[in-house]
């Protein structure tokens, strides 16, 4: 196997080039390391969730939407791109070591999450983004499609609604125990009985449908 130090150095150079690149572009990288090409090809066939389970730092490509191709070239070949890189590497090696002033690490900057600037506490910012997704999930339900006016949305108890949507069944407080029982009751009442189907889709299920067994009583949750 080749020198691991050389492989790491070249891999760091590739990663830095990808981090400095623009978003949503096509990139072709020439390298003489077949090991890097093989590993990249293996990772490129996995899903982002599989890569995360393997603890591989590959999410940057997915976030920046890069289309990366690694092209194999012969080592020390008279390739124009290789000659330029070799020249820059030799020039950099002749310079003094780069020293980073620790004061620069404390410099105030703009923190971003998924390319969105975070203007306040990062934990609260991410929490608000997730709760916005919960609101979208709640309003996309077929039974909630008629909530369109701002006055309708203001009438919701959103803190209680979020607790209902988030499925926190691992909580053991007295409130959550009662609340989970209430959730079970609500979801039981959402069973696809004939009565509920008529309420949800009156254009499809018309009239008062009777129980399929007795054919006399309305098929409601209380009757079942």
TrEMBL record:
<protein>
    <recommendedName>
        <fullName>RNase H type-1 domain-containing protein</fullName>
    </recommendedName>
</protein>
<dbReference type="GO" id="GO:0003676">
    <property type="term" value="F:nucleic acid binding"/>
</dbReference>
<dbReference type="InterPro" id="IPR036397">
    <property type="entry name" value="RNaseH_sf"/>
</dbReference>
<dbReference type="GO" id="GO:0004523">
    <property type="term" value="F:RNA-DNA hybrid ribonuclease activity"/>
</dbReference>
<dbReference type="InterPro" id="IPR012337">
    <property type="entry name" value="RNaseH-like_sf"/>
</dbReference>
<feature type="domain" description="RNase H type-1">
    <location>
        <begin position="1"/>
        <end position="94"/>
    </location>
</feature>
<dbReference type="Pfam" id="PF00075">
    <property type="entry name" value="RNase_H"/>
</dbReference>
<dbReference type="InterPro" id="IPR002156">
    <property type="entry name" value="RNaseH_domain"/>
</dbReference>
